[in-house]
Specification:
The complex is a heterodimer of chains A (about 325) and B (about 375). By secondary structure, chain A is mostly helical. Helices cover about 75% and strands about 5% of the residues of chain A. Chain A has helices spanning about 1-10, 10-20, 25-60, 80-85, 90-120, 125-135, 135-140, 140-150, 150-160, 175-180, 190-200, 200-210, 210-220, 225-235, 240-265, 270-280, 290-315; strands at about 60-65, 70-75. In chain A, a hairpin with a 5-residue loop joins strand 1 and strand 2 (about 70-75). Mean pLDDT of chain A is about 75; it is low at about 1-15 and about 160-170. By secondary structure, chain B is mainly alpha-helical. Chain B folds into 2 domains: about 1-65; about 110-315 and about 325-365, MetI-like fold (Orthogonal Bundle), CATH 1.10.3720. Chain B contains 15 helices and 2 strands. Classes of the chains: A mainly alpha (about 325), B mainly alpha (about 375). Chains A and B meet through helix 3, helix 5, helix 6, helix 7 and helix 8 of A and helix 2, helix 5, helix 6, helix 7 and helix 8 of B.
């Protein structure tokens, strides 16, 4: 009404100025900021300062003032030096932790993909199995994980079940058993050891692959059934269908899951490097907290490198379906 | 006669044909059955079925076995641990472990403290992550991608890296240095004015002024603030999940709402949120459960002398009357620890029974695509 009245007065310049509608996109962009605002504000006001202070602390000693508050003494690379060259265990823990990780990541990703494919098929009792398989996601975390690590009872229970006489108590299968199985095949001993290690670590791997299974299941559900239908019509076997259809279609999920697995196992408290750092943090020695912070920054740099390497490696094989 | 003959002939021929047909049918049925059973396809199918069943049952056993042993152990009395014949089923079953742990380790106090904390965090996180995730999914604004990279960054940084800085931040809480500027001047005044009052009257208030700073430790504030920003434990993952879910919601739905004159926020509340209930329940379940069992943040921000939380109840209470000189003390100790663990996760088990349907539904419908 107002605009119409102005139109009649014949002042196009004013109309242009006053009623020029903002484009829907720019208005939507503004609303977008409002939606992201909670994250943005706290991120800038609390998180970014925390990150910078953390870097700052790793280069200094904290001295608590008697009158209250605290001062920072800048000491350069002293904390890093202490961590790398004076602390006897740090580098050793770091290398063995990373080695363990390199073993675990492919095992977790492959295992969770396999289970997700199986759980995606129609069968009797599927809901029951699904409910059981996602129990560890909810229940085997945090404090329960910590209880399980040092659990004398479970170990003794396992050893009573285990009947393999020659192997040590808590192993499900021993290297000797598998090697006798594989001696006639031309399989390297390293591969055998790898498989044995994984099988004996199966509880750990099952516990840690819950979220990955969920992500894979979601990915499998999003593949159109029409593709499978046309495949069966053309006479493809299940094996072919898996490698020609399921695997390429799920490959973006494999990327997501490998990165998630790296992050998850690096940041979980059951990780040996993490627990080492937290014991250093709780140590009563002077400036142990600053040293622990320095250690964890170095650790973080390695995490970033590994994530970059993994994503570069996996994304070379990822297939993206064009949706037009 | 001729007619009759021809008829009977025809009949006979017909009958013969039918018999033949029946015979052929029977034969082919038997043959078909034979073929079906002994064909390669059927065999692989059966082998695969058996393999799948064995595998699933095996893995389910691996998952459930620890719970079974824990539950079995929680009903054992001290005598059972010295008896070699006792494996899983107790010979002298007793409720003592539960009774004494609940009474002496102040279970209910810890339970309600943790319940308040987890409910608070989970509700805030669910709301905020959905809100932020929607912003990332549906609006194109400058810096959208960079901000989302920030979300991923918060996921990658290990907690231990920020442990000290977080502790210091909330111990000497002072956003934008508001207090810091005046602190040197006001310090003495504050100390004089509040010094006595804080310890006495404001004892249970979180915002204690101490040495010119606000000490937020031992309150729900640190985790509350982090939750409001979507920066608490694993919140990056929740934002990611919500974003992927909202990306799968067709734009036409919102456009229709806009055309009908509904604003962006109204559309969000009335159209989008009801759609995303399974996903929100999933996020709620995750954040509730992970906050419930979390030890990192609770150790960092809470002192067990002030706020008694569930992770603190893990210890062998004296009331059980078993001292460290007992021959099977290690076993007994881990059994009691497991009982504490069971008591901690009992509410989660009940919650999971009700909510697992939504968990799988929410994930399945999210259509997460990298």
């Amino acid at each position: 009404m107002n605009a119409e009245a102005k139109l009649n007065t014949g002042k196009p310049a004013v109309i242009g100025k006053k009623t020029k509608p903002k484009s829907l996109d720019s208005r939507k962009a503004r609303v977008g900021y409002i939606f992201v605002a909670p994250f943005l504000i706290v991120f800038l006001l609390v998180y970014v300062p925390i990150v910078f202070e953390s870097i700052q602390y790793s280069f200094s000693y904290i001295v608590t003032r008697n009158s209250g508050g605290f001062d920072l003494d800048f000491v350069g690379f002293d904390n890093y030096n202490e961590a790398l060259f004076i602390n006897p265990d740090f580098i050793q823990t770091l290398t063995s932790g990373i080695k363990q990780l390199v073993i675990d990541i492919p095992a977790i990703v492959i295992f969770s993909l396999f289970i997700a494919v199986v759980l995606n098929q129609k069968m009797v009792g599927r809901t029951v199995f699904r409910a059981i398989f996602f129990i560890p996601v909810i229940l085997a975390t945090g404090i329960i994980e910590q209880i399980d690590i040092s659990n004398a009872m479970m170990e003794s229970m396992e050893s009573t079940i285990d009947t393999g006489a020659s192997s040590s108590a808590s192993e499900i299968i021993s290297v000797v058993d598998v090697q006798s199985l594989f001696t006639n095949m031309a399989v390297g001993t390293q591969l055998v050891q790898y498989v044995v290690q994984i099988v004996n670590d199966i509880y750990n791997i099952v516990n840690r692959s819950g979220v990955q299974m969920l992500i894979f299941l979601a990915g499998l559900q999003s593949i159109s059934p029409a593709i499978y239908e046309s495949c069966t019509v053309e006479g493809a076997t299940a094996w072919e269908t898996f490698w020609k259809i399921t695997f390429p279609m799920i490959s973006p999920m494999i990327l997501v899951n490998s990165i998630y697995t790296v992050i998850d196992s690096f940041t979980s408290s059951s990780n040996q490097v993490m627990s080492f750092i937290s014991t250093v943090y709780e140590d009563t020695a002077s400036h142990s907290r600053e040293i622990a912070t320095a250690m964890s920054w170095m650790y973080f740099m390695i995490v970033i490198l590994i994530i970059a390497a993994v994503s570069a490696l996996v994304s070379a094989y990822v297939f993206y379906q064009r949706k037009d | 006669m001729n007619k009759y003959d021809s008829l009977s002939d025809q009949e006979k021929r017909l009958k013969g044909k039918m018999q033949k047909l029946e015979f052929a049918d029977k034969l082919s049925k038997a043959q078909r059955l034979k073929l079906r059973i002994f064909s390669g396809y059927f065999l692989t199918q059966v082998v695969w079925l058996i393999f799948r069943l064995v595998l699933l049952v095996g893995v389910a056993y691996i998952i459930l076995y620890p719970f079974i042993t824990k539950i079995a152990g929680s009903f054992m009395s001290a005598q059972d641990f010295t008896d070699v014949t006792v494996k899983l089923i107790s010979k002298y079953p007793t409720w003592d472990q539960y009774r004494v742990v609940i009474n002496e380790n102040r279970y209910f106090e810890a339970f309600f403290n943790t319940l308040t904390l987890s409910l608070l965090c989970a509700l805030i996180q669910m709301t905020v992550c959905a809100f932020v995730g929607y912003g990332f999914a549906k609006f194109k604004f400058k810096g959208n991608n960079i901000l989302f990279l920030c979300v991923v960054f918060t996921m990658i940084v290990p907690h231990e890296t920020l442990q000290l800085a977080m502790f210091m931040k909330f111990r000497y809480f002072d956003i934008l240095n508001i207090l810091g500027i005046s602190s040197s001047i006001a310090q003495n005044a504050v100390a004089n004015e509040y010094g006595i009052v804080t310890s006495a009257a404001l004892g249970d208030l979180p915002a204690l002024m101490q040495d010119g700073f606000i000490n937020l430790l031992d309150s729900y504030w640190p985790l509350g603030i982090l939750s409001i920003g979507g920066l608490a434990f694993k919140n990056g993952l929740y934002i990611f999940m919500m974003r992927q879910f909202f990306k799968g919601v067709p734009d036409e739905l919102e456009e229709a709402a806009y055309v009908d004159g509904s604003g962006v926020f109204k559309t969000y509340v009335r159209i989008i949120l009801p759609l995303s209930v399974p996903m929100m329940i999933t996020v709620f379940l995750f954040s509730f459960a992970w906050q419930w069992t979390d030890t990192f943040y609770t150790n960092l921000f809470f002192n067990e002398n002030v706020t008694w939380l569930l992770p603190n109840i893990i210890s062998v209470p004296k009331g059980l009357g078993v001292d460290p000189t007992f021959s099977a003390y290690n076993l007994y100790k881990s059994a009691v620890t497991n009982t504490c663990g069971l008591l901690i996760i009992l509410p989660l088990i009940i919650l999971y029974c009700f909510a697992q349907r939504y968990l799988i539904q929410g994930i399945e419908r999210s259509g997460i695509v990298g």
